[in-house]
Each structure stands twice: as structure tokens, then as C-alpha cells.
Design goal:
The termini are far apart. The chain contains 15 helices and 17 strands. By secondary structure, the chain is α/β, with parallel strands linked by helices. The strands form five sheets. Strands 1, 4, 5, 6, 7, 8, 11, 12 and 15 form a nine-stranded mixed β-sheet that branches. The chain has a two-stranded antiparallel ribbon with strand order 2-3. Strands 9-10 form a two-stranded antiparallel sheet. The relative contact order is 0.21.
Length: about 475
């Protein structure tokens, strides 16, 4: 029998892979446009994708802790003092405010003309800066001189999942990288034995939108957020099986690593570099992760500062974990706390439900600022507090008192990491319906966060399907007036 020629033994996959100047490379070049995936500060092919690297300019911050209040906190009950709402309480809002506007639940506004809703909460000025904070947040009120209040943030989507995605990924389209992924892609991480991007969750449910909020999209998966759970095992399937010794596991990883590196040399596929790095990271984390979540080394004074009950997962314990993570070099830590969607239902309203969720977070947020400052970490750590949008100045007709979603003007605060402390920036109109001074679009805030980390938002790009993508899409400007 005649031997089959080598070319006939090759599969189509082998042909395209080995044809260096043929159809495979031409198709790939066509898909990528004028070059491979790139960013001016991204890791070189084959290198550890999370190795720390320089950005585009000198950074003011090294790390980010993003306290994401999922659901949309009401600025009118917390930070945005509006005497006009008190004077005109229960009066219909002028129709001119509503022309051309969309709201998440139009039917509740169609039942009768929406009426302005004054808050029941008492407001007072605090600190040397005189920042307005309501009685809902007494601990936050004590650290206002370390905070930068942004009273003129606005966004575009009116519903939760799209708005969360827009805030995190700069778009409402699935499949785009999240902010934490862009940051670690741009400058890596200084943590050797922990992920560069960690997600912590608290509250009665996860945030609407789920894992896409911390995904890596079309970036290599090394840059996606790693969710940590409460309890003795923060990451599923991380622990070594009891019948496998450390030496045996190390030998197996070395063999797998050699095979992966051989394949990486042949293909240049960045996902293989990600796989190598993830195996090594998981091996090191078998020691580092349990040590991280073990709070036994923290003083009782620190636990009391945060209001932590030992053994009970909470937003407070996540805040302390966030501090421990940035101490160990993790670049981006995002805390999601849910149940801020106060429409007026039985479990989410501006009466007792608001007090409950404020009690969950107020003490711990203030403690985080105090603790970071006392340890000399606040200057290098940018802390962000806020949700995906705010609430309407009109009430919503439901079982209890509530407000609808509102993207046109809401409040956030920042601290540390190169922003001016004790500053209140921007303002909304007398009813808090629209921005009146110094508007800050979500893309502007994203550009500013990247700038503080040493990244130029217009240069941090990745070529995918023939075009360069970036976090801020085609917009965004750095809000320089808030920089220290």
C-alpha cells in the first residue's frame, strides 16, 4: 500500500496554523486591522500578564477601592440638601421638567401627575468644609473633610443592569471589559500571590447584571475580576485535595507549565500566558487567600472601628478585607452592596428600608477612610462611593414612600488618591432634577479615575474586530478641578 503524502495527513486546522504567509495569517491580519491587540502599556506577549508596569504618566494613586451601592442611592435623603423640595412638597412638578424624559416605571407617573417629594431626613453641615450630610449617615459626616463630593454626576441608561454595565464598562453592550479589567490590563498589579482585581459582595442578593460587571470582555481573561466569598474558602476549588502533597502538585504544575509554554511559543496566544499565570497564582493563593481572610491578626480596636462581628460576612468585613487587599498590592477592589433600589415597595422604601441599608454601610465606609489614613495608605488609594444612578425629586406612587430611577443628576464621593479633600464640586438645579453647574458624565469620571492611576484614557486601547476600543468609548474628559 502506498504511503499517504504528509500534506494529505494534515488537517485544515494544521494547514491554517502552519501557513505563515497563507490564508490563515491573511485572515487574521484582516480581522486585526493594522496590527495585533495592543495597548501602549500592556504586557508583552509571553510575560506575566499581571506584572506591574508603568502607565502613561506619573500616577497619583496606586490602588482603587470602589464602594458600589447597587440600586441607586437617593441623593435627596443622603447628601443633596434641597430646601425647594421641602417648600413645594406634594406639588406637581412643572411639566417642562418632564418633556422628552424617560423613566424606568412610566406607569407610576401616568397614574397621576408626579409630585415633588421633600425628604423626612434632617440635614446639617459638617466639618470645616461644611459639607451637607443627612442624619442617615452620622459616621460619614465625621470624615467629610477627607471626602470630595461630586453633586453633578449624570449617566444615560435608566434601568439597573444597563446602567451598572455603563458605569463599569463604558457601554451598555455585553462583552466589553470592565473598569477593573482595563486598569489591570494597563498597569498590572503589585500583588504576587493575590489577584489584581477582586470583587466582594454583600447584601441580600447579587447586583443586577452579574459577572459581566467585572468581566474582561475581549481582553485576556487574566484581567477579569475574581469574586471572593465569605467563609473559610474564599475561592471555590482552590484548596489542594488532601491526598495530593505539595511536592506532587508542584511537579504537576511544572509539567503543565512546560507544555503550555511550548504551545505559547508556537502560537503566541495570550490566553495561554493567562493560563500559565492563573495556575501559578492559584498555587500561591492556597496560602495567601486563607491568610487574607483570617482577621485574627487585627486588633479589637480595628474590628470595633468597622463594626465587625467575627465570623459574620458583611459589608463591614468586606471593607476591612479591601484594606488588607490593597496593603498586599491588589490593584482594584470592588465592593457591591445591594438593596438601594428604593421605589416604595415593602422591602425597598425611603422609610425603614433606607435606614437599614445605611446602617449596613455608614460606619464601615467611614472606618475605611479613617483606617487607610492612619496607615498612610489613603494618599495612594482612591476610594469611590456611589451607585449606577440617583433618584427622582418626585415621589413614586406605591405601597410606601419611594423615588424612581434618575440618571440626570446624582451624587457620589471620592477620597484619597490625588483628589482634593473637603471639596464639594458641581450642583444640580433647585429641585435636583438636572445638573446646573459643572456636569460630570460617567465617561468623565472614568477618564479621571484612569488619569489618577497614571493612564491616559485615550491611549489605553485594545484592537478588536478591526477597531480600537477604550473604556470611555469616544468621550470622556479628565475633571481637573477636583485634582489635588
Amino acid at each position: 500500500m502506498n504511503e499517504i503524502p504528509p500534506l494529505l495527513r494534515s488537517t485544515r486546522r494544521h494547514f491554517f496554523e502552519r501557513c505563515g504567509i497563507g490564508l490563515g495569517s491573511m485572515a487574521l491580519s484582516s480581522l486585526l486591522g493594522d496590527g495585533p491587540a495592543r495597548a501602549s502599556s500592556a504586557a508583552e506577549p509571553g510575560a506575566n500578564p499581571l506584572a506591574p508596569r508603568a502607565g502613561h504618566h506619573a500616577p497619583r494613586a496606586k490602588n482603587v477601592i470602589f464602594l458600589f451601592m447597587a440600586g441607586g442611592p437617593s441623593q435627596f435623603e443622603l447628601f443633596d440638601h434641597k430646601p425647594a423640595l421641602q417648600r413645594y412638597n406634594d406639588q406637581p412638578i412643572p411639566p417642562s421638567y418632564l418633556e422628552g424624559k424617560r423613566f424606568a416605571f412610566m406607569d407610576t407617573f401616568n397614574k397621576e401627575p408626579p409630585k415633588l417629594l421633600g425628604t423626612r431626613r434632617k440635614f446639617a453641615r459638617h466639618g470645616e468644609s461644611g459639607a451637607w450630610v443627612s442624619e442617615c449617615l452620622p459616621h460619614t459626616a465625621k470624615v467629610v473633610d477627607d471626602l470630595t463630593f461630586l453633586k453633578s454626576v449624570w449617566t444615560e441608561p435608566v434601568n439597573h443592569a444597563p446602567a451598572k454595565l455603563f458605569f463599569n464598562a463604558g457601554t451598555t453592550q455585553f462583552g466589553r471589559p470592565s473598569m477593573g479589567a482595563w486598569v489591570t490590563y494597563g498597569i498590572g498589579s503589585e500583588a504576587d500571590d493575590l489577584p489584581g482585581f477582586v470583587v466582594l459582595q454583600s447584601g441580600p442578593r447579587g447586583p443586577r447584571g452579574g459577572a459581566v460587571l467585572w468581566g474582561s470582555g475581549f481582553l485576556p481573561t487574566a484581567y477579569q475580576g475574581v469574586p471572593f466569598r465569605g467563609g473559610a474558602e474564599p475561592i471555590l476549588d482552590l484548596s489542594r485535595p488532601p491526598e495530593v502533597s505539595e511536592a506532587d502538585q508542584r511537579a504537576a504544575l511544572n509539567a503543565i507549565g512546560d507544555l503550555n509554554r511550548h504551545r505559547l511559543d508556537a502560537t503566541g496566544d495570550p490566553e495561554i500566558a493567562t493560563r500559565i499565570a492563573s495556575y501559578e497564582m492559584a498555587f500561591r493563593m492556597q496560602s495567601s487567600a486563607p491568610e487574607l481572610i483570617d482577621l485574627a491578626g487585627e486588633s479589637q480596636a480595628t474590628l470595633d472601628l468597622y463594626g465587625i462581628e467575627p465570623g459574620a460576612p458583611s459589608f463591614a468585613s468586606n471593607c476591612l478585607l479591601a484594606r488588607r487587599l490593597v496593603e498586599r498590592g491588589t490593584r482594584f477592589v470592588q465592593l457591591y452592596h445591594t438593596n438601594w433600589d428604593h421605589h416604595g415597595g415593602p422591602t425597598e422604601n425611603l422609610e425603614d428600608s433606607l435606614d437599614t441599608v445605611c446602617l449596613d454601610v455608614d460606619r464601615a465606609c467611614a472606618a475605611l477612610i479613617t483606617d487607610l489614613k492612619a496607615r498612610g495608605l489613603l494618599d495612594d488609594t482612591l476610594v469611590i462611593w456611589g451607585g449606577e444612578f440617583g433618584r427622582t425629586p418626585m415621589g413614586e406612587v406605591r405601597e410606601n414612600t419611594g423615588r424612581n430611577h434618575h440618571p440626570d443628576a446624582f451624587t457620589m464621593w471620592l477620597a484619597g488618591g490625588g483628589v482634593k479633600p473637603g471639596l464639594t464640586f458641581g450642583a444640580s438645579d433647585e429641585f435636583g432634577f438636572s445638573v446646573a453647574e459643572d456636569p460630570i458624565h460617567v465617561h468623565d469620571l472614568q477618564a479621571t479615575i484612569l488619569h489618577l492611576l497614571g493612564l491616559d484614557h485615550t491611549k489605553l486601547t485594545y484592537r478588536f474586530q478591526g477597531r480600537d476600543f477604550r473604556l470611555t468609548d469616544v468621550g470622556g474628559r479628565v475633571v481637573r478641578d477636583i485634582l489635588a
